[in-house]
Amino acid sequence: MAKIRDRFYNGGIAMNFSNTLKRKLAISILLAICSTFALSQSSATGNADLYLAKSKSDEGCTVQEIVRLSFENGVLASTKTLASFDMKEVRFDLGSVWIYDDRRVITGRGDVVDLETGKLTFKSNGQVVGNFGSKLLIDVDRVDEEDLFLIDLDTLQTRRILSRPEIEDISLGDMSPDGKTLVDFNSSQYQRDGMELGIFFYSVADDFSNAKLLRRVKGDFRSSCAKFCSEFGDTNHVWLDNKTILTQRANGHLVTVSTDGKVTDIVKIDVEDEIGGFPRFYKYSGRVEYHCGNTEYQIDVKNKKFTTQRPYATAFSVVDGDEFWQEFFYKGKSIGRHWSSGADVGVDFIATEFAAEGKNLGYPDGIKVWNTFTKTWQTIEIEDVLQTFGWVEK
What we know:
Blueprint: E1 8-9, H1 21-29, E2 48-55, E3 63-72, E4 75-86, E5 97-100, E6 104-107, E7 112-114, E8 120-122, E9 127-132, E10 135-141, E11 146-152, E12 158-161, E13 181-185, H2 188-192, E14 198-203, E15 212-218, E16 238-239, E17 244-250, E18 253-258, E19 263-268, E20 280-284, E21 287-292, E22 295-300, E23 305-307, E24 310-311, E25 316-320, E26 325-330, E27 333-345, E28 349-354, E29 366-371, E30 378-381, E31 385-393
Antiparallel strand pairs: 1-20, 2-3, 2-31, 3-4, 5-6, 6-7, 7-8, 9-10, 10-11, 11-12, 13-14, 14-15, 16-17, 17-18, 18-19, 20-21, 21-22, 22-23, 24-25, 25-26, 26-27, 27-28, 28-29, 29-30
């Protein structure tokens, strides 16, 4: 079964792309993608399931649901609510939500819901800060408990990792894809000690009990934004592989930094000076995206180029137009234009949240779906959609 659609990540957590303010706020809280996903060959049946989260409107927006839209021969055949949860127990609107191994839904907090039974099989008390294959790293930062926990998503067994200074403040994206290296930018500890600014790489043992400074790369790697935005934003980055990160020396000046200390210029983009928030990097299956100001740039690290057209790992692509207009393409041919928010992409299917022109996309009217079988857009009106989070193509 096809397990995947194009997803972006920062630190191993899956999330579908959105250009709405609602989703961008969620992204700033929780960034991510599941790096173990892989594209499979095109479905021969046209059968697929799209999973989404929505609020249950008749419960005063205190209940959130998982809904499955099932397509047969490319046509919507059924809609089923799989599970309902009080927001005090589980939330699907805070950051990323993704599907692991076609059978488990993972929230940004690390809660795990079984797709077959709809039951909550693991309740997290923290936030996801890393994902290494089938392992999920959760940071619990509470008055009564402060530690890291490693969860095996196959067995749901957990292991406590005792906190220590080098690893107690892990953020999303800090851990390498294999979970063996930790990166820290311009450490406040080193700044207090009067040391030069730089990037610090730590090697981390499997049990996190022996984190050691691997290398310090000296240099001023900075981000900046307008005076009215936060003055405490960290330089953002994304791991390209287990030994290299992509980051910046200044807004628009992108460089790679490797664990052996090598710094390589990639591109210099002429960006606006007074941007409303700090730049961000995201990695998808097969591509890297850099958000700076109101523009999303596709970064070709290998060839040291950039573009503003957003391709997906499959044959789909999308171009953002004025305001919230998006134009969608399949194999380079336009398939439609909508007032819409991002896309959840499979091998043969693509879905986007839509609304009437001019309407706030934080409150979409529903979902539009296109596939390679019907080759037409299907409009599915669903109230209070929070986000789509995955295709399972059969």
